[in-house]
């Protein structure tokens, strides 16, 4: 049976893309939270992975500034620019027919003022055609979130460990332990009150993330924050084993894409050098 826009289900794990799909919107994530349904988020940086994840039923695709590490080869996310991320975001948004597509605002493109944040976010909305943006920071970013949401731009907040502030935080360290939990809780309420439609919590103690999830009306997304959040997000290269280097404790590898791709490339090289590819069936 063809799934129509009125009858399309929400939730993760679709075996295949239906003939007609209904786009996931921010309010659907809120509805899922209210029903106690968990949702999924993965990063994506190109059309093919976006199309695959969309078909798999991933609810949200994040064109993350993690493209700095996973596409451009930078050591951290700090160097990546707006002009480098917009083409990736455009490719993902064009390929995804169901998933909600949002993009990170990179370091230095929004912290200076709410107006700077709005102008940067507007570029992503107009040039990349994403459905929203994500920015890092808690209470200090409330003015930026307020400006964007009042200007018609959906915002996902990001608290806890914020990679763009790696140097200020003293490296990759868990945030919100002990007395710092109250500050994290205050940040979560601040971004909700400012108008964020969801908040990512990274490298936060599980009990703290669970408490925040229970107190907030908006959905929470965990990455290294335990399983008490409303949704989960991972960098796709980590999740499928394409990245064979060091990965954080919170990463689970659901496949071994590196081995598959390496074997295919070796087979290709072997056949070309042996003269067996291309064969008659590949020749005009």
What count of helical segments does DSSP give?
A: 11
Average pLDDT number: 92
Report strand order across the widest sheet. Answer: 1-2-3-4-5-6-7-8
Q: Based on Cα principal axes, name the global outline.
A: globular
Unreliable runs:
1-8, 14-19
Helix/strand structural class: alpha/beta
Beta-strand portion reads 5-15%
Q: How many β-strands, per DSSP?
A: 8
Element string (H = helix, E = strand): HEHEHHEHEHEHHEHEEHH
Helical percentage: 25-40%
Measured on Cα atoms, how large is the radius of gyration?
A: 20 Å
| Main beta sheet strand tally, sense and closure | 8 strands, parallel, barrel
In whole angstroms, the N-to-C terminal distance is 41 Å
What's this model, at a glance?
By secondary structure, the protein is an alpha/beta fold. It contains eleven helices and eight strands. It is globular and about 65 Å long.
Search tags:
single chain; 284 residues; alpha/beta; eight-stranded parallel barrel; 8 strands; disordered N terminus
């Amino acid at each position: 049976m063809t799934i129509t826009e009125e009858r399309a289900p929400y939730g993760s794990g679709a075996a295949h893309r239906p003939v007609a799909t209904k786009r996931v919107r921010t309010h659907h994530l809120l509805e899922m939270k209210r029903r106690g349904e968990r949702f999924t988020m993965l990063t994506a940086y190109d059309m093919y992975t976006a199309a695959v994840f969309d078909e798999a039923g991933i609810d949200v695709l994040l064109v993350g500034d993690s493209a700095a590490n996973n596409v451009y080869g930078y050591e951290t996310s700090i160097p990546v620019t707006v002009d480098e991320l917009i083409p990736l975001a455009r490719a993902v948004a064009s390929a995804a027919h169901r998933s909600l597509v949002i993009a990170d605002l990179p370091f230095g493109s929004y912290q200076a003022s709410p107006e700077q944040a709005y102008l940067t976010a507007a570029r992503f909305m107009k040039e990349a055609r994403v459905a929203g943006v994500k920015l890092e920071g808690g209470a200090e970013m409330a003015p930026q979130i307020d400006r964007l949401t009042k200007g018609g731009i959906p915002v996902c907040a990001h608290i806890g460990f914020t990679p763009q502030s790696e140097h200020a935080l003293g490296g990759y360290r868990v945030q919100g332990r002990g007395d710092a939990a109250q500050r994290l809780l205050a940040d979560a309420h601040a971004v909700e009150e400012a108008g964020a439609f969801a908040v990512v919590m990274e490298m936060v103690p599980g009990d703290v993330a669970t408490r925040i999830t229970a107190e907030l009306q908006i959905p929470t997304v965990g990455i290294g924050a335990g399983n008490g959040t409303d949704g989960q997000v991972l960098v796709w290269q980590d999740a499928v084993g394409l990245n064979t280097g060091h990965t954080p404790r919170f990463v689970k590898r659901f496949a071994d894409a590196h081995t598959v791709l390496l074997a295919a490339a070796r087979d290709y090289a072997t056949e070309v050098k042996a003269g067996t590819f291309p064969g008659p069936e590949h020749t005009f």
